[in-house]
Amino acid sequence: QVQLVESGGGLVKTGGSLRLSCAASGSIFTVHAMGWYRQAPGKQREVAAALTFGGDPIYADSVKGRFTISRDNAKNTLYLQMNSLKPEDTAVYYCKANLRTASDFSRDYWGQGTQVTVSS
After folding, report:
1. ∠ Cα 76 93 117 (to 5°)
2. Strand 10-13 vs strand 114-119: parallel, antiparallel, or unpaired?
3. Which contiguous run of DSSP H or E holds residue 98?
4. How far is 30 from 24, CA to CA, in rounded Å?
5. Alpha carbon distance 87, 40 (integer Å)
6. Could you give the CA distance from residue 102 to residue 70 in angstroms, rounded to a whole number?
7. Residue-wise pLDDT tens digits, 39-59
8. Cβ 38 vs Cβ 20: under 8 Å
9. Are 36 and 49 in contact (CB under 8 A)?
10. Judging by beta carbons within 10 Å of its beta carbon (0-12, 13-18, 19+), is residue 32 exposed, middle or buried?
11. Up-side HSE of residue 71: CA atoms within 13 Å toward CB?
12. Are 20 and 114 in contact (CB under 8 A)?
């Protein structure tokens, strides 16, 4: 069964850096798109960064210049490099992938989420 497993979250100070990883496993035929979503306490979930099917990066205005999304196609792993972190970046970060698998032509899959906390 297809699974997305996230790692790399934690507690950092303002100005620090973290690198999140999302490893996809299972019978995956095609990766259509992948991205990182985040949900802060009391706020709506939002897209932080994403890669289109063509591999073009998209960033929320709030993270431009500080976050970098990338993917290792050979390992089916998505990364989010987060630099110059701010307290407002504190949230649960979720990896999402739209995949073609052995059983579905197109379906969204979500990771379990990883907590990122930035102290002021």
Report:
1. 130
2. parallel
3. strand 91-101
4. 12
5. 11
6. 25
7. 999 999 999 999 988 889 999
8. no
9. yes
10. middle
11. 24
12. yes
The single-letter code of the amino acid at 33 is: A
Tell me if 30 sits within 8 A of 20, measured CB to CB: no
The residues that bridge with 91 in the sheet, in sequence order, are 116
Question: Token match 């960033």: residue?
Answer: 59
Q: Please report, to the nearest 10 degrees, the dihedral formed by the alpha carbons of residues 93, 98, 100, 102 taken in order.
A: 40
pLDDT (average), residues 78-100: 97
> Which tokens is 34 given?
């992948």
pLDDT, one tens digit per residue, over 13-39 is: 999 999 999 999 999 988 888 999 999
Residue 73 contacts by C-beta under 8 Å, 6 or more apart in sequence?
A: 31
